[in-house]
Design brief:
The structure is a single chain. Helices cover about 40% and strands about 15% of the residues. It has seven helices and six strands; from the N terminus they run E-E-E-H-H-E-E-H-H-H-H-H-E. A six-stranded mixed beta sheet has the order 1-2-6-3-5-4, covered by helices on one side. A hairpin with a 4-residue loop joins strand 4 and strand 5. The protein starts with about 20 loop residues before the first strand and ends with a strand.
Length: about 200
């Protein structure tokens, strides 16, 4: 029985085991890092592209490029992509930082031969359909407007302004007008320039 009225004993950490990745180079020159975490039913694949908010021509370009990748690809609609991911129990998570963009796939091992080709199609052959983009943009804009009212967000934005200035990439933050000005042509241009094998790494 745990006595909740007593503070747990503090003990020093004796050892931290960080697995060493196995490194390899794919035939197309892409760096692979394989981290074996033991026998698990799930595998995570991170595609890392060496470009992010720092490299974008307009605000929100890197974020929306990654976000819209799966919203329609060559030969498949947005709904068909979602249904395929759901059918195989897979989950796709896009994200972007200042210097990298990520597309992370979580898949059951037994379905990997189906989900990896789908991931390849999502990354290589996105269509950036206008309707899906507008829906995603409007949804994100509503979330943005709510977040902008939070004291924490206001404080962080003002702190970053003072630290970097709004002309420096680290100091820039989007406005509602930036959501209205972003276009699918800008997303296609960013994708063509940065989302390719010469600018990528893979962590498995």
């Amino acid at each position: 029985m745990i006595d909740r009225k007593r503070q747990p004993e503090v003990k020093p950490i004796s050892k931290i085991n960080i697995p060493e990745p196995e490194e390899m180079i794919a035939p197309n020159g892409v760096e692979f890092y394989i981290i074996n975490m033991g026998e698990q039913d799930v595998v995570r694949i991170d595609l890392i592209f060496g470009a992010g908010k720092w490299d974008q021509d307009v605000l929100l370009q890197s974020m929306f490029t990654n976000l819209i990748l799966k919203e329609g690809v060559e030969g498949m609609s947005s709904q068909e992509v979602a249904e395929q991911l759901d059918y195989y129990g897979a989950w796709l998570q896009p994200s972007a930082t200042f210097h990298n963009s990520y597309v992370s796939l979580y898949s059951l091992n037994k379905h990997i031969r189906h989900t990896v080709p789908l991931l390849e199609k999502i990354v290589k052959k996105p269509l950036f359909p206008e309707h899906e983009f507008e829906v995603a943009r409007d949804r994100r804009l509503q979330n943005f407007l709510v977040e902008e009212e939070r004291v924490q967000v206001i404080a962080v934005n003002q702190y970053i302004d003072k630290l970097f200035g709004n002309k420096y990439p680290y100091g820039q933050h989007a406005s509602a007008a930036d959501f209205q000005n972003i276009t699918t042509d800008q997303l296609k241009a960013y994708h063509q320039k940065y989302d390719n094998s010469a600018n990528s790494r893979v962590i498995l």
